[in-house]
Amino acid sequence: MSQQRHGSTPGHGAGAVPAFPDLPEATIARLPEYLRALHNLGETGADTVSSEGLAAAAGVNSAKLRKDLSHLGSYGTRGVGYDVTLLIEQIEYVLGLDQRRAVCLVGLGNLGHALAGYDGFASRGFKIVALFDADESKVGEIIHGLPVRHISDLGRVAVEEKIAIGVIATPAGAAQAVADVLVDAGVTSILNFAPCVLSVPSNVDVRKVDLAIELQILSFHEHRKASLTALPGGRSATTAGDQEAVGS
Ligand SMILES: NC(=O)c1ccc[n+]([C@@H]2O[C@H](COP(=O)([O-])OP(=O)(O)OC[C@H]3O[C@@H](n4cnc5c(N)ncnc54)[C@H](O)[C@@H]3O)[C@@H](O)[C@H]2O)c1
Q1: Which of 60, 74, 82, 207 has its CA 20 to 30 A from that of 51?
Q2: Model's pTM, two decimal places?
Q3: Are strands 126-133 and 146-150 parallel, antiparallel or unpaired?
Q4: Ligand 1 center to residue 112 CA distance, Å?
Q5: With contact defined as beta carbons under 8 Å apart, do 196 and 176 qualify?
Q6: How far is the CA of 15 from the centre of ligand 1 (A)?
Q7: How far is CA 40 from the centre of its chain?
Q8: What is the pLDDT confidence band of residue 96, given thresholds at 50, 70 and 90?
Q9: What pLDDT was estimated at residue 246?
Protein backbone atom coordinates (compact mmCIF):
# COMPACT_ATOMS: atom_id res chain seq x y z
CA MET A 1 0.00 0.00 0.00
CA SER A 2 1.32 3.44 -0.81
CA GLN A 3 0.39 6.89 0.26
CA GLN A 4 -0.14 10.12 -1.58
CA ARG A 5 0.99 12.48 1.15
CA HIS A 6 -0.50 15.93 1.49
CA GLY A 7 -0.63 18.19 4.51
CA SER A 8 0.50 17.17 7.98
CA THR A 9 -0.51 14.32 10.25
CA PRO A 10 -3.73 15.31 12.03
CA GLY A 11 -2.98 16.91 15.35
CA HIS A 12 0.30 18.50 14.30
CA GLY A 13 -0.89 21.99 13.56
CA ALA A 14 -1.44 25.00 15.79
CA GLY A 15 -3.70 24.12 18.69
CA ALA A 16 -2.87 20.39 18.36
CA VAL A 17 -2.86 18.12 21.38
CA PRO A 18 0.75 18.59 22.55
CA ALA A 19 1.10 14.95 23.63
CA PHE A 20 0.34 13.68 20.14
CA PRO A 21 3.53 12.02 18.89
CA ASP A 22 5.24 13.05 15.67
CA LEU A 23 5.66 9.67 13.99
CA PRO A 24 7.71 8.67 10.95
CA GLU A 25 5.52 7.29 8.13
CA ALA A 26 7.28 3.91 8.31
CA THR A 27 6.45 3.66 12.02
CA ILE A 28 2.79 4.51 11.35
CA ALA A 29 2.72 1.75 8.72
CA ARG A 30 4.05 -0.81 11.23
CA LEU A 31 1.73 0.11 14.12
CA PRO A 32 -1.23 -1.86 12.67
CA GLU A 33 1.06 -4.92 12.44
CA TYR A 34 1.98 -4.57 16.13
CA LEU A 35 -1.68 -4.14 16.98
CA ARG A 36 -2.70 -7.29 15.11
CA ALA A 37 0.10 -9.26 16.82
CA LEU A 38 -0.87 -7.86 20.25
CA HIS A 39 -4.53 -8.80 19.76
CA ASN A 40 -3.45 -12.33 18.83
CA LEU A 41 -1.23 -12.50 21.93
CA GLY A 42 -4.05 -11.14 24.10
CA GLU A 43 -6.35 -13.89 22.81
CA THR A 44 -3.83 -16.50 23.99
CA GLY A 45 -4.04 -14.98 27.50
CA ALA A 46 -0.62 -13.29 27.47
CA ASP A 47 -0.40 -10.27 29.84
CA THR A 48 3.08 -9.19 28.80
CA VAL A 49 5.32 -9.69 25.81
CA SER A 50 9.03 -9.15 25.24
CA SER A 51 10.19 -6.90 22.41
CA GLU A 52 11.68 -9.98 20.73
CA GLY A 53 8.39 -11.90 21.06
CA LEU A 54 6.30 -9.04 19.71
CA ALA A 55 8.79 -8.34 16.93
CA ALA A 56 8.69 -11.99 15.84
CA ALA A 57 4.88 -12.01 15.93
CA ALA A 58 4.75 -8.82 13.85
CA GLY A 59 7.47 -9.89 11.40
CA VAL A 60 9.94 -7.04 12.09
CA ASN A 61 13.27 -6.88 13.87
CA SER A 62 13.21 -6.10 17.58
CA ALA A 63 15.46 -3.01 17.42
CA LYS A 64 13.09 -1.41 14.91
CA LEU A 65 10.10 -2.34 17.10
CA ARG A 66 11.67 -0.81 20.24
CA LYS A 67 12.44 2.39 18.32
CA ASP A 68 8.89 2.54 16.92
CA LEU A 69 7.33 2.05 20.34
CA SER A 70 9.66 4.59 21.94
CA HIS A 71 7.98 7.21 19.71
CA LEU A 72 4.78 6.43 21.65
CA GLY A 73 6.64 6.82 24.94
CA SER A 74 6.40 3.07 25.46
CA TYR A 75 9.63 1.43 26.59
CA GLY A 76 8.38 -1.71 28.35
CA THR A 77 9.75 -2.90 31.68
CA ARG A 78 13.19 -4.46 31.85
CA GLY A 79 12.91 -8.22 32.38
CA VAL A 80 9.10 -8.12 31.93
CA GLY A 81 8.46 -6.60 28.54
CA TYR A 82 5.43 -4.66 27.37
CA ASP A 83 2.03 -4.80 29.02
CA VAL A 84 -0.18 -6.20 26.21
CA THR A 85 -3.40 -4.39 27.18
CA LEU A 86 -1.68 -1.06 27.77
CA LEU A 87 0.21 -1.21 24.50
CA ILE A 88 -2.99 -2.07 22.61
CA GLU A 89 -4.63 1.01 24.17
CA GLN A 90 -1.67 3.24 23.29
CA ILE A 91 -1.51 2.10 19.67
CA GLU A 92 -5.29 2.30 19.24
CA TYR A 93 -5.24 5.83 20.65
CA VAL A 94 -2.49 6.98 18.28
CA LEU A 95 -4.19 5.37 15.28
CA GLY A 96 -7.46 6.98 16.31
CA LEU A 97 -9.11 3.57 16.63
CA ASP A 98 -10.69 4.44 19.95
CA GLN A 99 -13.50 5.89 17.81
CA ARG A 100 -15.33 3.86 15.17
CA ARG A 101 -14.94 5.53 11.76
CA ALA A 102 -17.70 5.49 9.20
CA VAL A 103 -16.61 4.33 5.76
CA CYS A 104 -18.37 4.49 2.41
CA LEU A 105 -17.59 2.34 -0.57
CA VAL A 106 -17.93 3.62 -4.13
CA GLY A 107 -18.08 1.14 -7.01
CA LEU A 108 -19.95 -2.11 -6.36
CA GLY A 109 -18.43 -4.32 -9.02
CA ASN A 110 -16.38 -7.44 -8.39
CA LEU A 111 -14.00 -5.80 -5.93
CA GLY A 112 -16.64 -3.63 -4.28
CA HIS A 113 -18.85 -6.66 -3.58
CA ALA A 114 -15.94 -8.47 -1.94
CA LEU A 115 -15.00 -5.44 0.17
CA ALA A 116 -18.60 -4.81 1.22
CA GLY A 117 -18.79 -8.35 2.59
CA TYR A 118 -15.47 -8.30 4.44
CA ASP A 119 -16.08 -8.74 8.19
CA GLY A 120 -12.53 -7.68 9.09
CA PHE A 121 -13.31 -3.95 8.80
CA ALA A 122 -15.85 -3.98 11.63
CA SER A 123 -13.61 -5.97 13.96
CA ARG A 124 -10.85 -3.39 13.43
CA GLY A 125 -12.91 -0.30 14.16
CA PHE A 126 -14.36 0.57 10.76
CA LYS A 127 -18.00 0.37 9.78
CA ILE A 128 -19.10 0.47 6.16
CA VAL A 129 -22.20 2.64 6.40
CA ALA A 130 -23.02 3.36 2.76
CA LEU A 131 -22.51 1.94 -0.73
CA PHE A 132 -22.59 3.99 -3.94
CA ASP A 133 -22.52 3.23 -7.63
CA ALA A 134 -23.28 5.15 -10.82
CA ASP A 135 -25.03 2.21 -12.47
CA GLU A 136 -28.81 2.63 -12.05
CA SER A 137 -29.30 -1.13 -12.38
CA LYS A 138 -27.29 -1.64 -9.18
CA VAL A 139 -29.02 1.07 -7.16
CA GLY A 140 -31.35 -0.51 -4.59
CA GLU A 141 -29.50 -3.82 -4.59
CA ILE A 142 -28.88 -5.01 -1.02
CA ILE A 143 -25.32 -6.15 -0.39
CA HIS A 144 -24.59 -7.58 3.05
CA GLY A 145 -27.53 -5.68 4.49
CA LEU A 146 -26.80 -2.28 2.92
CA PRO A 147 -28.60 -0.78 -0.08
CA VAL A 148 -26.56 0.47 -3.03
CA ARG A 149 -27.31 4.19 -3.47
CA HIS A 150 -26.72 6.39 -6.45
CA ILE A 151 -23.47 8.35 -6.41
CA SER A 152 -25.52 11.55 -6.67
CA ASP A 153 -26.73 10.88 -3.08
CA LEU A 154 -23.20 10.79 -1.70
CA GLY A 155 -23.05 14.43 -0.58
CA ARG A 156 -26.20 14.20 1.53
CA VAL A 157 -25.48 10.73 2.93
CA ALA A 158 -21.87 11.63 3.80
CA VAL A 159 -23.12 14.38 6.10
CA GLU A 160 -25.95 12.26 7.59
CA GLU A 161 -23.70 9.28 8.26
CA LYS A 162 -20.61 11.35 9.23
CA ILE A 163 -18.50 9.49 6.70
CA ALA A 164 -14.80 9.85 7.49
CA ILE A 165 -13.22 7.59 4.89
CA GLY A 166 -14.19 6.90 1.27
CA VAL A 167 -13.08 3.75 -0.51
CA ILE A 168 -12.88 3.94 -4.32
CA ALA A 169 -13.38 0.66 -6.21
CA THR A 170 -14.39 2.07 -9.59
CA PRO A 171 -12.51 1.79 -12.89
CA ALA A 172 -9.50 4.12 -13.05
CA GLY A 173 -11.26 6.37 -15.56
CA ALA A 174 -13.97 7.22 -13.02
CA ALA A 175 -11.80 7.45 -9.90
CA GLN A 176 -10.87 11.15 -10.11
CA ALA A 177 -14.50 12.20 -10.54
CA VAL A 178 -15.44 10.01 -7.56
CA ALA A 179 -12.61 11.50 -5.49
CA ASP A 180 -13.92 14.99 -6.36
CA VAL A 181 -17.41 14.01 -5.18
CA LEU A 182 -15.98 12.62 -1.94
CA VAL A 183 -13.91 15.75 -1.33
CA ASP A 184 -16.90 18.01 -2.06
CA ALA A 185 -18.85 15.95 0.47
CA GLY A 186 -16.22 16.76 3.12
CA VAL A 187 -14.47 13.38 3.16
CA THR A 188 -10.78 13.94 3.95
CA SER A 189 -9.41 10.36 3.78
CA ILE A 190 -9.57 8.19 0.68
CA LEU A 191 -8.51 4.60 0.10
CA ASN A 192 -8.05 4.17 -3.63
CA PHE A 193 -8.08 0.73 -5.24
CA ALA A 194 -8.18 2.11 -8.78
CA PRO A 195 -4.82 2.04 -10.56
CA CYS A 196 -4.35 5.80 -10.93
CA VAL A 197 -3.01 8.81 -9.08
CA LEU A 198 -5.64 11.12 -7.63
CA SER A 199 -5.41 14.87 -7.43
CA VAL A 200 -6.82 16.10 -4.12
CA PRO A 201 -6.53 19.20 -1.89
CA SER A 202 -3.72 19.33 0.65
CA ASN A 203 -6.00 18.47 3.59
CA VAL A 204 -7.01 15.14 2.04
CA ASP A 205 -5.00 11.96 2.69
CA VAL A 206 -5.00 9.27 0.02
CA ARG A 207 -3.77 5.71 0.43
CA LYS A 208 -3.50 3.56 -2.64
CA VAL A 209 -3.79 -0.23 -2.72
CA ASP A 210 -2.45 -1.93 -5.81
CA LEU A 211 -1.90 -5.68 -5.65
CA ALA A 212 -0.20 -5.60 -9.06
CA ILE A 213 2.48 -3.31 -7.60
CA GLU A 214 2.96 -5.69 -4.66
CA LEU A 215 3.38 -8.57 -7.13
CA GLN A 216 5.90 -6.53 -9.12
CA ILE A 217 7.90 -5.91 -5.94
CA LEU A 218 7.84 -9.64 -5.16
CA SER A 219 8.91 -10.24 -8.74
CA PHE A 220 11.92 -7.99 -8.12
CA HIS A 221 12.86 -10.09 -5.06
CA GLU A 222 12.46 -13.32 -7.04
CA HIS A 223 14.70 -11.83 -9.70
CA ARG A 224 17.27 -10.73 -7.09
CA LYS A 225 17.29 -14.16 -5.38
CA ALA A 226 17.74 -15.88 -8.70
CA SER A 227 20.69 -13.64 -9.59
CA LEU A 228 22.28 -14.18 -6.14
CA THR A 229 21.91 -17.94 -6.49
CA ALA A 230 23.63 -17.66 -9.84
CA LEU A 231 26.63 -15.95 -8.15
CA PRO A 232 29.73 -18.07 -7.50
CA GLY A 233 29.29 -19.47 -3.95
CA GLY A 234 25.47 -19.42 -4.33
CA ARG A 235 24.71 -16.58 -1.83
CA SER A 236 21.03 -16.27 -1.10
CA ALA A 237 18.78 -13.93 0.91
CA THR A 238 17.16 -15.00 4.18
CA THR A 239 13.41 -15.39 4.42
CA ALA A 240 13.17 -12.89 7.30
CA GLY A 241 15.20 -10.35 5.36
CA ASP A 242 12.89 -10.70 2.40
CA GLN A 243 9.75 -10.17 4.52
CA GLU A 244 11.11 -6.91 5.88
CA ALA A 245 12.34 -5.67 2.55
CA VAL A 246 8.93 -6.19 0.98
CA GLY A 247 6.97 -4.81 3.92
CA SER A 248 9.00 -1.68 4.57
N1 LIG B 1 -5.98 -2.51 -5.90
C2 LIG B 1 -6.02 -3.74 -6.31
O3 LIG B 1 -5.22 -4.54 -5.95
C4 LIG B 1 -7.11 -4.07 -7.25
C5 LIG B 1 -7.50 -5.38 -7.47
C6 LIG B 1 -8.56 -5.60 -8.32
C7 LIG B 1 -9.17 -4.53 -8.97
N8 LIG B 1 -8.71 -3.27 -8.76
C9 LIG B 1 -9.30 -2.08 -9.35
O10 LIG B 1 -10.53 -1.87 -8.67
C11 LIG B 1 -11.45 -1.23 -9.54
C12 LIG B 1 -12.72 -2.05 -9.59
O13 LIG B 1 -12.46 -3.31 -10.16
P14 LIG B 1 -13.68 -4.29 -10.44
O15 LIG B 1 -13.11 -5.53 -11.00
O16 LIG B 1 -14.53 -4.37 -9.21
O17 LIG B 1 -14.47 -3.46 -11.58
P18 LIG B 1 -15.99 -3.59 -12.00
O19 LIG B 1 -16.04 -3.09 -13.41
O20 LIG B 1 -16.50 -4.97 -11.72
O21 LIG B 1 -16.76 -2.58 -11.03
C22 LIG B 1 -16.64 -1.19 -11.11
C23 LIG B 1 -17.89 -0.56 -10.52
O24 LIG B 1 -17.71 0.86 -10.49
C25 LIG B 1 -18.93 1.45 -10.88
N26 LIG B 1 -18.68 2.81 -11.37
C27 LIG B 1 -18.17 3.21 -12.54
N28 LIG B 1 -18.08 4.54 -12.60
C29 LIG B 1 -18.58 5.01 -11.42
C30 LIG B 1 -18.78 6.31 -10.89
N31 LIG B 1 -18.44 7.42 -11.56
N32 LIG B 1 -19.31 6.42 -9.67
C33 LIG B 1 -19.66 5.31 -8.97
N34 LIG B 1 -19.51 4.06 -9.42
C35 LIG B 1 -18.96 3.91 -10.65
C36 LIG B 1 -19.47 0.52 -11.97
O37 LIG B 1 -20.86 0.71 -12.18
C38 LIG B 1 -19.14 -0.82 -11.35
O39 LIG B 1 -20.19 -1.29 -10.52
C40 LIG B 1 -10.73 -1.12 -10.89
O41 LIG B 1 -10.15 0.18 -10.97
C42 LIG B 1 -9.66 -2.18 -10.81
O43 LIG B 1 -8.55 -1.88 -11.63
C44 LIG B 1 -7.72 -3.04 -7.90
Answers
A1: 207
A2: 0.80
A3: parallel
A4: 7
A5: yes
A6: 40
A7: 18
A8: confident
A9: 38
